[in-house]
Amino acid sequence: MTHPSEEQLVGYKLGEAHDRSAIEEHLGECSECRASFARLERVLVAMDSMPVPERGEDYGRRVWQQIAPRLPQRSPWWSFGMHPRRWGVVAAAAALVIAAFFLGRRHPVRLPTNDQSVQQVRERILLVAVGDHLDRSEMMLVELTNAEPGPADKKLVNISTEQKRAEDLLDENRLYRETALQQGDSALASVLDELERVLLDIAHSPEELTPAQLEKIRQRMEAHGILFKVRVVGSEVRQRERSATPVPAQDNSTNQKGKHT
Amino acid sequence: MSRMIESTQGSDAAAVERTLAGDPDAYRVLVERHSRNLFRLAYRMTGNEQDAEEIVQDAFLRAYRKLGQFESRANFGTWVYRIAVNCALDRRRKRSAEERHRASPADDDADAPRAIEQRASASPAPDRLALSAELGKQIISALDALSPAERAAFVMRHWEGCAIEEIAQALHLRNNATKNTVFRAVQKLRRALEPLLAKEPVTPGTRRAMPAAQGTES
């Protein structure tokens, strides 16, 4: 091969060169490139001698002493391993149960009499909650996609609002993904898993991004087609939710098929 | 990420679970275990002891608040490192913005004012005395001359042994752009240090002289 470029030599050094064997062979034959490579290595070895102030064995203890008073106060709910934001999920589930109760009073439905019907009710509650979750996720992703920097070209884009929502959605997402997995709904679990990665990406980003960084996030979202998948699955979930809606109770006294009370 | 982190992964996961379950001492274990490594990372990212200490604290506080989002299948060490990298980048951006308010130059974020990190050499560590004063100064100033992304990418790759994918995630870049960022960092360091190294013998480090080209770190 011809003399490798500096970039190729750096790539080789980093273990990232595509043409490793050709470069290796060339280095074996060309003293000029070998010398250049040796100089590169020397620079990196020199970097290792950059002094870093040592911290003693008790440094971790000191850090703990400094941060411990600033950690959020723990409440009794911690003893249940429940993160505060998950109460939002619990509240949402409770609201669904209450709504289902009142709906049931107005439009009585057959009480579950076996495991299968209990399973159907559970599935429906999950579908309603997941549908709502996917709608809110879609809204947040669309807003992030349309986020604009300020008027000045170099102004940073503040995504703290979207980040906060992504953090809230993350907790719910995990719960739904685990439930979907337990119920053997691998397709839904798979999309929720992908959504979770995107939400994590957003939640762990800096609060303020350069337009270029925001563009990278958008490109990753596009590469995964996550917005499209969320829309499709959201629509499917709504469809399944409608299909899973229980048939209103029949008047037992008449025992006539299809005649509602 | 770092091999040191990997060895503690199992016990870290247990400590995270215990923290989430309300054990007050469990998070202390994580803090005490990872503080020194995190400090080294933060110091190399900033070149300033005080900033590095604050980044360590910020990272653990931020990690604690977000612990509910931590996936049990993930590695806590890697996760908290990533948070620390973001804390360091946030700090540099904030400082850069403050500097821009004070001074007029329309400096791009990727070329943050060098003066910020030049405080790095203000508090020499004892190890520095073992080096040629000139070489030590040049190393600090070569690192200071890198953009925040270049410095972060180089630190993560060279000293922390991170894969390109991990660095890309932390910096919100694509893999190819991340590789180019590391390349640029190495090229800039080479330009800055090679003339000096040609004149001066390098103090032997703890790393191998001729590594097998699997990464910049031995």
Descriptive notes:
The complex is a heterodimer of chains A (about 260) and B (about 220). Chain A is mainly α. Chain A has ten helices and two strands; from the N terminus they run ααααααβααβαα. Chain A has a two-stranded antiparallel ribbon with strand order 1-2. The longest helix of chain A has about 30 residues, at about 115-145. The model of chain A is unreliable at about 75-85, about 100-110 and about 250-260 (pLDDT under 50). Mean pLDDT of chain B is about 75; it is low at about 1-5, about 105-130 and about 200-218. In chain B, α4 (about 50-65) packs across α5 (about 75-100). Chain B has about 220 residues and is mainly α. Chain B starts with a helix and ends in a 19-residue tail after the last helix. Chain B contains ten helices and no strands. Chains A and B meet through α1, α3, α4, α7 and α8 of A and α3, α4, α5, α7 and α10 of B.
> How many E strands of chain B?
0
Count up the helices of chain A.
Answer: 10
Distance between the termini of chain B: 14 Å
Structural class of chain A: mainly alpha
Descriptive terms for the model:
heterodimer; A: 261 residues; mainly alpha; 2 strands; disordered C terminus; B: mainly alpha; 10 helices; 65% helix; elongated
